[in-house]
Amino acid sequence: MSDLKNDTFLRALARQPVEYTPVWMMRQAGRYLPEYRATRAKAGDFLSLCKNTELACEVTLQPLRRYALDAAILFSDILTIPDAMGLGLYFAEGEGPKFRKPLKTDADVDRLAVTETSRDLPYVTDAVSLIRRELNNSVPLIGFSGSPWTLATYMIEGGSNRDFTLSKLWLYNHPERLHRLLDKLALSVTEYLNAQIAAGAQAVQIFDTWGGVLSDQAYRHFSLRYMEKIIAGLTREADGRPVPVILFTKGGGQWLEDIAASGCDAAGLDWTTDIARARARVGGRIALQGNMDPAVLRAAPEVVEAEVERILSLFGRGAGHIFNLGHGITPDINPDTVACFIDAVHRLSPSFHP
Amino acid sequence: MSDLKNDTFLRALARQPVEYTPVWMMRQAGRYLPEYRATRAKAGDFLSLCKNTELACEVTLQPLRRYALDAAILFSDILTIPDAMGLGLYFAEGEGPKFRKPLKTDADVDRLAVTETSRDLPYVTDAVSLIRRELNNSVPLIGFSGSPWTLATYMIEGGSNRDFTLSKLWLYNHPERLHRLLDKLALSVTEYLNAQIAAGAQAVQIFDTWGGVLSDQAYRHFSLRYMEKIIAGLTREADGRPVPVILFTKGGGQWLEDIAASGCDAAGLDWTTDIARARARVGGRIALQGNMDPAVLRAAPEVVEAEVERILSLFGRGAGHIFNLGHGITPDINPDTVACFIDAVHRLSPSFHP
Fold first, then answer.
1. Residue A328 and residue A149: Cα distance in Å, rounded?
2. A293:B163 CB<8 A
3. Average pLDDT, stretch B205-219?
């Protein structure tokens, strides 16, 4: 068993008693930090930064030097697997991710090979190993992947498309083709997360960023089902410790009971969900992670503090809460406000614990 | 009491027995219809079309000539009130609505005058009267307005902004200023909907398009509260018939119990909500309107029919369901598929009614 100096995050995920509510932020290694922007400029573009082991490690650690975060998260992109499958990921300035060769036909799907991390994505596990060494057991490291449905939307649309026109066309008109794609992605994601765990990731999160755009039934058939397959195939112990799985479906608050039954250890909540009601609904079966609106970080320090207090009070006393934002932190946030946020969680939460 | 030939829609809203499930579509008068595009070209731009009584009436009636819809809805824009308040609404091609003079300061809010329809928006009630005459009691006419919060987002952002950066900054950092704005908007919307009812609207819908981007608490304080005020101030009977109110918060599925307690007669559901669970949650207190994903209309006729059947079955037997899409129909839909959709609702639904 690794000798973690701060295992608050892992204990909270296991719903064990903690002294305070642990906190980390989605996209905590990101553009709001000047040191991140400097490192990214050094790397060239975003994808080169992801693929450079030393620089990916460096930006992973940057927020931990500034803030008393209770976990680190691997710096990478959710679209590494489709990139490794040969779709040609690139980032057009101000337009988000794009693929040079989006999927169009049955044959395009049949041609895709399930990825193998050691062969196709060694830079990811290299980064995990290096970050673990550099963290030196200070806090746990979270590995992650996009969900099959979320990856599929980008692979089919060729980039971001708020209407999901083509991916929903596949879903409704070519469901078998979409299922074949999701099957390959689920196998790839399972192996990918297991490789991250083998390299040292101490928890993993599945980012189902676009599950929330689906109908209730389509969510269960085309997104949740594949995440359940992944969870069932994951290594759930390493170094004599459980490796918890966090499932985050943005916009998935209505499906929390289904998510709680997926085999995950925790559900990520966006800010639209009342965390008190959520806790009652999952009835202690899983932990909950979230769920402050990232927009609050644009407000004055006393507003941030009041919102932290409000969310802590809603969750209430006892174990099983990991504080986080309801989505990634945005580039325009002042790093000083983040300090105030992290500090507020640590200062105000002990009174909610034994 | 008006001698409506088809009052199925109004009876379903009152949760009274019907022979089949009534259906209409949000944005049913829209760009997917070639005759709409022709009329719009004649009018010039979108706003001129809204402000031209005869042409607004014409496009309102167009979908009813093609399809056996159970209700007409006034053709207008949700942003007529802010436009009448002097913000200068315009539509930049491919960019959605914009305001020349977005709100920036306390003084900007203080300067706004509550609108009075007969003085500031006569073209809207003129259109309602003309449409009622032309409908000749065939089906009921729905009036509508945007919700105060939804209107406020456009007025503050100056247009569409998926991150709601400035409107959330007001919400968190200047809540009193936002409340003053929402108060004025709630008064304007109340008077506006009452004027539509006086002119002949037989039901009204409040479009809370952006309520779903708020946190649970912010939704209740900054959106739902103002819709409750509006509902409390509405004329609820005309021509010896109740005038029902439909409240549609896109992304509001988690707050259905709160919505059901708002005083509305029906809640609009987007496609993310399981309508069977929704029915159980509201327990017959209100009717439900929805909730097929508009993306289904891009699929083959048999897929559309299967989805209609699935939603009818989920709602189950009995009164209180108005079939609709979960959001507006998009411009790329084939009008023949719409025919198949409306027909499927009418053909498949009688078996769910006495």
1. 19
2. no
3. 98
